[in-house]
Amino acid sequence: MTPAARISAAIEVLADLIQRRRPAADALKDWGLARRFAGSKDRAAVASLVYDALRRRASSAHALGEETPRALVLGMLVSQRGLRPDEIAALFNGQNHAPAPLTEFEVAGLATFDLSAAPGWVRADVPEWLWPSFVEAFAEHAVAEGEGLSARAPVDIRTNRLKTGRDALRAALSHLQPEMGAWSPDALRFQPGPDGRGPTLQSEPAFFAGEFEIQDEGSQLVAALAGVKPGDTVIDLCAGAGGKTLALAALMGNEGRIFATDLDSRRLSPLHDRLTRSGASNVEVRVPRSRGHDALSDLAGTADLVLVDAPCTGSGTWRRNPDAKWRVRPGALAERIREQAEVLDRAAGLVRPGGRIAYITCSVLPEENDVAVEAFLERHPGFALVPMRDLLSAGEVDYGLLARFATQSGLQLSPARTGTDGFYLSCLAAPG
Ligand SMILES: C[S@@+](CC[C@H](N)C(=O)[O-])C[C@H]1O[C@@H](n2cnc3c(N)ncnc32)[C@H](O)[C@@H]1O
C-alpha cells in the first residue's frame, strides 16, 4: 500500500470506531480481516496512524473545525507527524486509493492550525469531563501533563536481577541500542521507531532466558519504593499477570514469601509461565476457586507488606492506549473508586500489626489516588501515612529527587515529570 492508501485506510478505521463506538483494536482487526492483501507492515502503519490520530483527537477537531475522521487524521499529520500543509495536500490527491483532495475548509484549517485560544482540555487532549481532575492534580502544569500523556511511549524493560545485571543485559541487547533508565537501576529503555513501535523484544534469546521483563520504568519504581525486604511475607492482592510480583521477587532475592492472588482467576494465568522463566521461587499463586472465594483466609494479619496494585481507569497509561482516553466514562470511574475502597479494606485485614500497605494505581486522577487514600484513613483511623522522605530513602538507591513529585498523601509520577507512565504510590503503616 502507498502511504496515501494507508491514510485512507486509517480514515476508514476511525470512521468505523467512532460511528460504532467500538475499541480501536476491534475496528483494526476487522479492517485487516477484510483486506487480506494488506501485509504486516501495512497493518502496523495503519494502526500507528489510527492510534496517533486518537492521541490528538480533541486538538485536531478544534484546529480543523470539525470532528470527522478526516479531520482527526489531518490534525495528527501536523501535530504528531510534523507534516507541512503542502506535503499533506500531496498525499490527499484522490488518486490510486489516496484520500479525496482537501476542501477549502480543510486547507484553511491546516494553514492556521491555531490552538492558542482553545480551552485547556483541548490543548492537553484530555476528555473535557476529566479536565477539573487534571487541574486539581497538576494546577498550571495540567496542559503539559496532558501533552505528555498524548505522546508516544518508549518501551522499558526491567533487568531480572535473579538472572543477570543491567550492564550485561545492555551488552546482550546492544544491537537494539538500549538507553539506561533515568531512575530505576534495573531499567533499560528503547525509543519507538517511525511507526511508533519499539523492537520485538519477546523474540530475543535474553527474554527466553528470563533475563528481563517488559515493564514501564514507573511500574518498576513504585515496586521498588513499596519497601519490600528479603525475608518479608508479602501479599500481592491484585497480582494480575504478575508484573509487580516478579519485580518484588527479584528485589527480595527470592528470600521470604510472596502470595499472589487476584479477584479474577483468569488474569493470573500468564503468571505461572512468567515465574518459571524468571527463576522466582518464593511466589505462591493463590487462585480463587470462584468469585467471592477468599484464597487468603489463612493469612489474616500476617503480611509485612500488602501490595494493592489497584484496578483503575489507567489514565496514567494513555500514551500506550490512547483509545482508552476517550472511552473512559464517569460511571467507570465511579466503579473503579468503589473497587479501590473494597480492595484497600481487604488489605487492612491482611497486614500484620506494624506492617504496611503499598497502594498503587496507574492513574493521575486524584479521585483514584490521594482522595482514595484519605478516605481509607478515615475508615481506618489507626493507619498512618508513611512519610515520603522515609519511602524515598529506605532502599539501595536514594530517590530523594522524586520528593518534588509528592502529593498530599503519596507520590505521582507521569510522562512530563519522570518520563514514565503516570503511576501513583502511597504507603500506609498499620497500627503497631
Ligand atoms: C492494575 S491491574 C494489576 C496489574 C498487575 N499487578 C501487574 O503489575 O501486572 C489490577 C488488578 O486488580 C484486580 N482486581 C480488581 N478488583 C479486585 C479485588 N477486589 N481484589 C483483588 N483484585 C482485584 C483486577 O482483576 C486486575 O487484575
TrEMBL record:
Enzyme Commission number(s) of this protein: 2.1.1.-
Residues the entry annotates as binding S-adenosyl-L-methionine: 262, 309
Residues at the catalytic site: 362
UniProt enzyme class: transferase
SUPFAM superfamilies (alphabetical): S-adenosyl-L-methionine-dependent methyltransferases
An MF annotation (GO) of this entry: methyltransferase activity
Biological process, per Gene Ontology: methylation
Pfam family of the protein (one): Methyltr_RsmB-F
PANTHER family assigned: NOP2 YEAST -RELATED NOL1/NOP2/FMU SUN DOMAIN-CONTAINING, RIBOSOMAL RNA SMALL SUBUNIT METHYLTRANSFERASE B-RELATED
Recorded family membership: Belongs to the class I-like SAM-binding methyltransferase superfamily. RsmB/NOP family.
Protein name per the record: RsmB/NOP family class I SAM-dependent RNA methyltransferase
